[in-house]
């Protein structure tokens, strides 16, 4: 079983590529954002440390859950808080995904385990993955998609872009680049070409 990390900036088309992989290959898909969100829930392992760190900010709702919009505003505007949150959450995400990979390897039923995260390079997944893929679309294309499909403002897009690695770093670190600027069929053909 090959352990493949899928990365790229916000709105690059990672989820769309994963949906195709899930349909067409004997694989498991894990998403860093989903794992992170579950580990940040009340009662989960990161929650206590996040309460200690984030109590000065208005990010908790009435039930004590982290409220997405205010958390996004805080994390993408305050780099030092983002780094502290990442230092709590990302090691826990990595531990969790590595345990899942180990379990999948023991069971021996899958051809691939794909793990998607915008922050694979920051968290040094090149050390644990068999290979990394970079899903690429230009910043202009991603900005257009994020405004059209998610209603993000230019300010939010600028902040997220600034918090993620530049294109050059992704290209240097990843064995394969999938250009998702064209049609879905074109993107899927690139995936087939890589996996044979
Ligand atoms: C910031 C939050 C509230 C934004 O949630 P929202 O649903 O509005 O957006 P979404 O999750 O789709 O994120 C938008 C983009 O930002 C990226 N992103 C998320 N967290 C971070 C971060 N800490 N640093 C840099 N980019 C990030 C995502 O990968 C995605 O590309 C949420 O992502 C979060 O709680 N992040 C902290 C946990 C984390 O670090 N997750 C990233 C993977 S480990
Ligand atoms: N050829 C293509 N390949 C992949 N996605 C495409 C393509 N053309 C358009 N898109 C669109 O790009 C948008 C963003 O894709 P997606 O949500 O998969 O991004 P993402 O990289 O997963 O973002 P995030 O980092 O927020 O998780 C989607 O609306 C998708 O339909």
From TrEMBL:
Pfam families per the UniProt record, alphabetical: CoaE
Reported function: Catalyzes the phosphorylation of the 3'-hydroxyl group of dephosphocoenzyme A to form coenzyme A.
Keywords from the named record: ATP-binding, Coenzyme A biosynthesis, Cytoplasm, Kinase, Nucleotide-binding, Transferase
Family: Belongs to the CoaE family.
Alphabetical list of NCBIfam families matching this protein: dephospho-CoA kinase
Protein name in UniProt: Dephospho-CoA kinase
Species of the source: Roseburia lenta
Positions with a binding annotation for ATP: 11-16
Recorded catalytic activity of this chain's protein: 3'-dephospho-CoA + ATP = ADP + CoA + H(+)
Localization terms from the record: Cytoplasm
GO molecular function: dephospho-CoA kinase activity
Entry's EC annotation: 2.7.1.24
């Amino acid at each position: 079983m090959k352990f493949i990390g899928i990365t790229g900036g916000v709105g690059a088309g990672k989820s769309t590529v994963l949906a195709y992989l899930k349909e067409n290959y004997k694989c498991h898909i894990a998403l860093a954002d989903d794992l992170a969100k579950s580990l940040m829930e009340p009662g989960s392992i990161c929650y206590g440390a996040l309460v200690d760190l984030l109590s000065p900010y208005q990010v908790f709702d009435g039930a004590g859950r982290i409220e997405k919009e205010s958390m996004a505003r805080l994390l993408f505007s305050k780099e030092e808080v983002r780094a502290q949150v990442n230092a709590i959450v990302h090691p826990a995400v990595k531990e969790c995904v590595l345990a899942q990979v180990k379990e999948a390897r023991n069971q021996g039923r899958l051809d691939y385990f794909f793990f998607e995260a915008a922050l694979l390079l920051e968290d040094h997944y090149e050390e644990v993955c068999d290979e990394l893929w970079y899903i690429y679309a230009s910043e202009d294309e991603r900005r257009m998609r994020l405004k059209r499909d998610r209603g993000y403002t230019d300010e939010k897009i600028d902040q997220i872009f600034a918090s993620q690695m530049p294109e050059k770093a992704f290209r240097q670190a990843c064995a394969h680049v999938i250009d998702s600027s064209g049609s879905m069929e074109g993107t899927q053909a690139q995936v087939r070409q890589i996996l044979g």
